[in-house]
Amino acid sequence: MSSIKWVSVRASIAETLSLHNRSPVVASQMPSFKISGWEKEGEEEKKIGFTDLGCDQKVQEKKDGASLKQMIEELDCSDVPSVFICPISLEPMQDPVTLCTGQTYERSNILRWFSIGQYICPTTMQELWDVSLTPNRTLFHLIYKWFSHRFLLQKKQAENVQGRVKELLEKLEKAKGQPRIKALCALRQICQTEESARRTVLDGAGVALLSSLLGPFTSHAVGAECIGILVNLPLDSESKISLAEPAKISLMVDLLHEGTIETKINSVKLIETLMDIEDLRSENVSSFRLLFGLLRLLKDKRYPKGMAAGLGLLNIICSCKQVRNQVVSIGLVVHLVELLPCATTSCLETALAILDVLSTTPEGRAALKDCSSTIPNIVRILMRVSEDCTQHALSILWTVCKLAPEECTSTAVEAGIAPKLLLVIQSSCNPVVKQRSAELLKLCSLNYTATIFISKYTKYTNTEEMSEVRNNWASAWPYKINCTGFFPCHTVRMDNGFLPASELCT
User: Fold this and answer.
1) Are 436 and 399 in contact (CB under 8 A)?
2) Span 341-364, average pLDDT
3) I need a surface site. Which of 29, 50, 156, 245 has the fewest CB within 10 A?
4) Over 390-447, what HEC string results?
5) Sign of torsion over alpha carbons 296, 302, 303, 307
């Protein structure tokens, strides 16, 4: 029996309909035909079926066991050849088809292009004289081969990594002294870069093994390596409870004081991970040794990552009311205030959030008032970063000024708070923030006549700092100013219209 190969006739049907109706019909939009036939190979006959023009892809997937879609999703390839990329989605093509212009696209993308009435080539902008789609089988096989090669390499590498991790875990159960430290170091380096290594540690009871190595008699070298591994793992509640034992937390605090900067950051991050355990909150966060360790980490301005990690843990610690007075007693308020001018955006928001929380206690308010840099540093932040920063800053300034109105409000006015408060009021930001700004502005104006207060205001209106504030507001603030340019110095825009500044001073 001679070899017979059946092929789909959808393309020819579509072409015929297009010519007859004078309207474009895409082959893949035709009803799906399921055509069966027989193909002779040697002495055997086998039944084959084709359900679409892209049949080569299904045959290839069945042969190799992995779909192209799966490989594209699992591989993180930044060096994909440009010829494999669809010009429409800029993603690797899984079913490439070619137009009459010679340009190749992903089938689903070009069909969507046609569905919106666009019958021109997206790349060349030529009008299409034929809208049939020709599967580019050669390109598909090249794409599949390219991804298959890298997929198999990654799979083989993952198997090697898993084997190496299992070997190291077995070694940790028996080794002691320097061999144990070397095994831990090797495991830490693998877990930092390989997801398959982290999964193997979790599946192989590695967390319990590492947790058992931590204790009151653990050397700092072993503790640092164990913490460096654990901080990269997603821990379940049982593992967290085991790691939250007082002796293990004490070791983490010791490493926060005496370890390298990397070890200090890892210790802080691991303690932060364990903070959702209620027992840890009540028994360990009040430790002065932990608080002093965080303070030392924040003081070291050479390491922004250490500062960010320390502020993150401190923010969680301050959520416990019973700890806030202890945080204030170690002088952390003054240090955070001095940190504001040089902090990054994320650190600045966290530091202001901590100060805002501490200002709810009498000791915190007193510390903020007694620090000479509090008002100037916080006024300088207004309108410079984000609405959250401005909201925290206004809350702190309001608390401090209410504590000592005559002393603090005059300092705030001299620091240039008035034009910034007017800018907040005139914006479209949160009404609560605008209301707090209006209240603070009125409080600041009580010790001045209208003329003097306006003169204090105009002193800062055209300064270089205010120009920078206006530019930052226009470019980065998520809300728009309700006027063109900067507002007149004698009025302020309220929700119910313009209000003369003199009325705010009464």
Assistant:
1) no
2) 92
3) 156
4) HHHHHHHHHHHHHHCHHHHHHHHHHCCHHHHHHHHHHECCCHHHHHHHHHHHHHHHCC
5) positive
CA atoms 497, 498, 502, 505: torsion sign:
positive
Tokens of 461: 């209106």
Q: Which residue has the higher pLDDT, 311 or 321?
A: 311
Higher pLDDT, 166 or 427: 166
What are 317-343's pLDDT values in tens digits?
Answer: 888 888 888 899 999 999 999 999 888
Q: Describe the crossing of helices 246-258 and 261-273 by its angle, rounded to 10 degrees.
A: 150
Residue type, 257: H
Of 355, 359, 328, residue with least CA distance to 343 = 355
Beta bridge partners of 47: 38
Measured distance CA(191)–CA(260) in Å, rounded: 19
For residue 372, count other CB atoms closer than 10 A to its CB. 11
Q: Would you give the DSSP letter of residue 201?
A: H
For 62, the token pair is: 């069945």
What are the pLDDT digits (tens) for 364-378? 999 999 999 999 999
pLDDT band at 456 (very low <50, low <70, confident <90, very high): low
| 248: nearest Cα among 189, 222, 232, 236 | 222
pTM above 0.70, yes or no: no
Eight-state DSSP code of residue 98: E
The closest of 280, 260, 282, 283 to 272, measured between CA atoms, is 280
First to last CA, the chain: 106
Nearest to 52 by CA among 116, 114, 133: 133
Q: Classify 500 as helix, strand or coil.
A: strand
Backbone angles phi, psi at 111, to 5 degrees: -65, -40
pLDDT bracket for residue 393 (50, 70, 90) = very high
Closest among 384, 431, 378, 385 to 401, alpha carbons compared = 378
